[in-house]
Design a protein that fits this description.
The chain is of the alpha+beta class. The protein contains 13 helices and 19 strands. It is elongated and about 100 Å long. The structure holds one RNA strand.
Length: about 425
Amino acid sequence: MLELSLLRENAELVIERLAIKRVDARETVKKILEADLNRRETQKLLDDNLAESNQIAREVGNLFKEGRQQEANDLKARSAELKIAARDLSEKLDALQKEQNDLLVTLPNLPHPETPLGHLPEHNVTIYSEGEIPDLGENALPHWELTSKYDIIDFELGVKLTGAGFPVYKGQGARLQRALINFFVNEGVDAGYLEIQPPLMVNEASAYATGQLPDKDSQMYHADLDNFYLIPTAEVPVTNIYRDLLLKETDFPIKNVAYSQCFRREAGSYGKDVRGLNRLHQFDKVEIVQIQHPDRSYAALEDMKAHVTGLVRKLELPFRILRLCGGDMSFTSALTYDFEVFSAAQKRWLEVSSVSNFESFQANRMKLRFKDSTGKTRLAHTLNGSALALPRIVAALLENNQTPEGIRIPKALVPYTGFEWIK
RNA sequence: GGAGAGGUGGCCGAGUUGGUCGAUGGCGCACGCCUGGAAAGUGUGUAUACCUCAAAAGGGUAUCAUGGGUUCGAAUCCCAUCCUCUCCGCCA
């Protein structure tokens, strides 16, 4: 969530920037500031009340010691009055705090000034593209046919075991999964990221801190008995490692890479978007996360973008990088780069990574702070990106590399797969 | 799952016949003294949030797992929840 101090000091800027995300924040900002003013007044009244109560308690103690029962009892009466007033004030304060907080969490993060205007996919700006789009001719097969032709991924079997969107990987398909995971994790480790294996289930506090709750409740699988959520991305447990921490400036940069399975209910999806590997309920992803000093978070974002570029390049896939427009960017992001690979039989671009700087938006909700060189406590910046998500990479690899002899594995992967062809 | 013990500041650890306890002490850390330099020694300081204040200083409030209760007053008493440890049971 946004920092309250920013709203107090520069409400106009907030309103102006949020308009880029097509949010009219005028009314909300006004209400927040009203609640804030009210809250502070109430707090002052309550504090004064409690101060007097504490004073009386001390005096009563002394009077009893001196045996002055009558005076002590008189003071007790005053204390009872204060207590009733304090209860009311305290309830009012809680209500105001809740009101303010509830309003504050409805405001998305401010988009970075470089964010393109617009709200449609065509308003996203392609800032880079690379690689040849292969001409596969007329007989090219989409990946969902290739997977059954070579018997490497079984969608129907997944339906039998669980349901749609839970494919079963077999033989060379399973091996390819392991190869990609190891390749991505190793590349991350080589780039200085600490490898993390997080839990795949998190508690309510964690889901709230990274913003999945309360908004995206229906997008997560939930274990009722223990009130745990299956993670939709490793971002959730990994970022939560740093929840409620007060870091030192020398702790930066924090760089983590984590492989995990991800679970998403994807309620409301349909059509060609969910065909084959395009959208699954369970999938594999390697995520990179950085916790950074605010002065260096944008440099870190560029680093992460370069890292992901390296991965896609080594896989020899044609790709492009988009800077997302305000309306297409996530609630929490300040600046996002999307990576898309071209899946040549489907003839469409598939998003395989989203690299974002959240600035202090997540850190504020999570209370992730650090002491700067002057001893002041400030919010850290958080960033994350997929590096990479497997299914669509697999879809593009299968489609783009299909030949009459089989499917060719890119050179960089061969040491991991142990084979050069899927046959 | 059953029985028991316990959760105090960055860490360890006092404090549980309720009373100036945000909390003795030690370690760690920071700065200073000492030293040619260091170690040892020694001195001082060392939580977080909110409010107040133009700012700093200062002041107020809250926080001893979390939430509630008793009381003029709670780290200390009561209740609930969460978590940790030990033993038993079960088990990859």
